[in-house]
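Course assignment 3, question 2. Fill in each field.
Student: A.L.
Task: Predict the tertiary structure for the chain below.
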Amino acid sequence: MRGANLPWIVGLVAFPVVGLLFFFITGSILGAVGVGIVVAVVVGAATRLAVPVDSALDTYNVDARRRVAKVLQSTAAIQEMSGQVADPLARQALLDGCKRIPELIQSVQAHDPSGVASMAAKLNVTTSGIQMSLAQYLQIQNAPDLYTDSTGLLKTGQEGFQNFREFVVDTFRQLNDAEVINYKATLAALKPLEIQQMR
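Answer field:
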């Protein structure tokens, strides 16, 4: 989106600069305004030709931000609902998983911006499912007599929430493992150079 606005920004900057310069030289206000407008349009058009807008990249960035916002919205809802969970293990698993999600997204944004949308889509499926499951879990917890084997259902929920935490941690671990591979490869590539310089 910033690339699309650049010609307008350059044109707006050129308008007062050229207009004031023309006014100081000629003393004509109307002439200064007219010349300023013409120059602003010409400079803006030239900037648009020189710096083409990557509409595909803009569309991707908008989509990525929308998906990330959706994940963070679901994560915030899970964190809020977690306060109603009586089982400490289930509650902690939910909070642990939710805590790591923003960190995971920030890590992807820092190391692989092109992977943000796909990561957010993957997380959105998980967080949306957990949010719905948690709502059902709370219904069972709050009215256990209305469900057959409510104890077993709550136990299954606890295990599912722990799996959610492990999923988030494992996804983070995979991302970090990929970074470690790059880290080792970079150091390995530098080693021969270091040996040559010492000779």
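Instructor remarks: The two ends are 52 Å apart (CA to CA). The mean pLDDT is 78.
Grade: pending
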